[in-house]
Request: fold
Amino acid sequence: MTDPISDMLTRIRNAQAVLHKTVIIPFSKFKFSLAEILEKEGLIGKILAQGRKTNKTIKIELKYDGNNPAISSIKRISKQGQRIYIKKDELRPVRQGYGIVIISTSQGLMTNTEARKKGLGGELICEIY
Reply:
């Protein structure tokens, strides 16, 4: 696996496409903090770190509105071959405020609205709406 973040987003996208209740992904601190942001924004249910050391995983409960997933689109922006960075002045709302962009800043992962309030730019990780 060359890009673990893309793998995580694809697992979530695929699990929601077939209406699974949960999805399990390999653990990393970066992926766990990304999942925490999604949970805080109300796009997924509870997250849980399971296992120990090398067998550690993240269990994510997916949210639905009837048969419609809470996340209609989840897309990786900055890739391994082409990193995309944004300055604090260039941060704009996504989908007229209905979507979010997750940004990796010097103070950790945060949404575009948090980064705009703190006056930070950084690497664009993914776009969700």
